[in-house]
Amino acid sequence: xxxxxxxxxxxxxxxxxxxxxxxxxxxxxxxxxxxxxxxxxxxxxxxxxxxxxxxxxxxxxxxxxxxxxxxxxxxxxxxxxxxxxxxxxxxxxxxxxxxxxxxxxxxxxxxxxxxxxxxxxxxxxxxxxxxxxxxxxxxxxxxxxxxxxxxxxxxxxxxxxxxxxxxxxxxxxxxxxxxxxxxxxxxxxxxxxxxxxxxxxxxxxxxxxxxxxxxxxxxxxxxxxxxxxxxxxxxxxxxxxxxxxxxxxxxxxxxxxxxxxxxxxxxxxxxxxxxxxxxxxxxxxxxxxxxxxxxxxxxxxxxxxxxxxxxxxxxxxxxxxxxxxxxxxxxxxxxxxxxxxxxxxx
Length: 346
Hints:
By secondary structure, the chain is of the alpha+beta class. The chain has 8 helices and 19 strands. About 25% of the residues lie in helices and about 30% in strands. The chain is globular, with a radius of gyration of 21 Å.
């Protein structure tokens, strides 16, 4: 039975990874860190041409291999315009929403490796000045980055090295509460990467050899829809996305459970795989819920669309307030680890 020490390790890894900015398209540092962490556990890992990380966790039957997919890319933004005021108009990377990104601290990464602080604010953000503050529609055309530098013109901002196409990262505000809740931006999906590292550590230290070959692909373009569309090793017959489990109105899952997805925006997941996941959850005593996600897509669906002939599934620790300031729980981490171990028979 997997112990609490692996849950603690999974969170430790997650917390560190959350401190490495990695919006889609700017993931090299995070991917290198992931590669080194799996290698430190004794597993072979390589950076793919696309920039993801492919890991071999071992196992016996390479003709019926299992691929576990998670992603280290997150939401973020890119400079779309250096405005005449010296402030910045952004274009989002992935599903970043201006409504819940407003008033967040940001960092602008320039091509010259400078990092400039700022804040995303509503244009004309002072309530005492803007009589339409509450009624103003929030979009990436009505918010702007106010740089924490003395800039008054586009020329001033460009003199800092900032230009169109520069990456803008949002402060994750990561914390763990005494009651075990985990709060941060980008738990989707760095929490799952941490969970897979905890799973790999248990696999390494338990001395177990899974009956089937297991690979992990940590992708870097999931938030823009094509993360899992490449790098499927020969012999893989099943792929399971380990991503956030949805928590919200009309769904059963809580932050303390592992979610098993039966259907999302891309259609139903493999009936066979979902059934096996439910059986494994029951056998391991994992607290789980089966749900249908109304607005969701996963890496493994990108894998299917690439033309690979596999069965597919989706699981993840329950996460509330997805694509915003997200919340999960240490018990959700434990239940996800229990399910993974039971599914592969260790």
